[in-house]
Amino acid sequence: MSTDKLVERIADIQFDWYARLLPGGIAFVFYVYLSGHPLDYTFPHLFACFALAYLIGHAVQPLSGLLIWLLQRWIKSDQALYRRYKQQYGRDHLSSLVNKAYSEATGMFSAALLIVGVMVFLGQYSRYPALLAAYFSAMGVERVYARSRKIADLQVVLASPPAPPDAKIP
Questions:
Q1: Residues 23-32: what's their mean pLDDT?
Q2: Are 114 and 27 in contact (CB under 8 A)?
Q3: What is the pLDDT of residues 86-135, one digit of tens each?
Q4: For every residue of 3-64, which 3-state class applies, written as one string?
Q5: How far apart are alpha carbons 139 and 167 in whole angstroms?
Q6: Tell me, what's the pLDDT at 17?
Q7: I want to staple 85 with a disulfide (CB 3.0 to 4.6 A). Which of 10, 41, 153, 154 is the partner?
Q8: Phi, psi angle pair for 111, to nearest 5°
Q9: Within 10 A of 5 (CB to CB), how many other CB atoms are there?
Q10: CA proximity to 22, closest of 95, 103, 82, 86
Q11: Are 105 and 143 in contact (CB under 8 A)?
Q12: Do residues 20 and 57 lie in contact, with contact meaning Cβ atoms separated by under 8 Å?
């Protein structure tokens, strides 16, 4: 497998981890916490819990993506600049930072939505999960702003002239 393909796969795995598995796992933990059901720690049961957490993270991701899209439009994030950068440079360190901020924002919003969903599903409204959902929401907003700042930083790279191919980096 070439290095470029490996870098692309790492970014995809990172998104799965931040945006799908962690929020689903957080929701599962809060379900166990609020419902009072004891957890069976056998391997098949834990594997099923991880699979369910991943699937739940997948299910809520479109709603989190919608929230991010609305916030980006509200703060006027320059998505065209990011697309131009990726066309010119492909996936590199800077575009990976932008993608990581998006993954984190998706994960934060997904966790907040799932915690609220667990509380509504169980009909148990507790201060600790509600405060944690508010925290995840606030951190999701912060990550969207961070992504916007990282995209704005790409303007400096796009404005600078490209280095000659034989130039040595100091």
A1: 88
A2: yes
A3: 777 676 667 777 788 888 899 999 999 999 999 999 888 888 889 999 99
A4: HHHHHHHHHHHHHHHHHHHHHHHHHHHHHHHHHCCCCCCCHHHHHHHHHHHHHHHHHHHHHH
A5: 41
A6: 76
A7: 154
A8: -60, -45
A9: 9
A10: 103
A11: yes
A12: yes
Report the candidate in 14, 170, 155, 22 with the shortest Cα–Cα distance to residue 97: 14
Can you read off the two tokens belonging to residue 143?
Answer: 């990550």
**Percentage of the chain modeled with pLDDT above 90:** 24
Residue 17 half-sphere exposure, CB side, CA atoms within 13 Å? 9
Model pTM? 0.78
In the predicted model, is pLDDT for residue 170 greater than 50?
no
Task: Count CB neighbours of 67 within 10 A.
Answer: 21
Residue 73, Cβ neighbours under 10 Å: how many?
A: 10
The burial class, CB within 10 Å (0-12 / 13-18 / 19+), for 32 is: middle
Closest CA to 23 of 99, 136, 100: 136
Position 54: which residue type? Y
Residue showing tokens 């056998």: 42
More confident residue, 153 or 55: 55
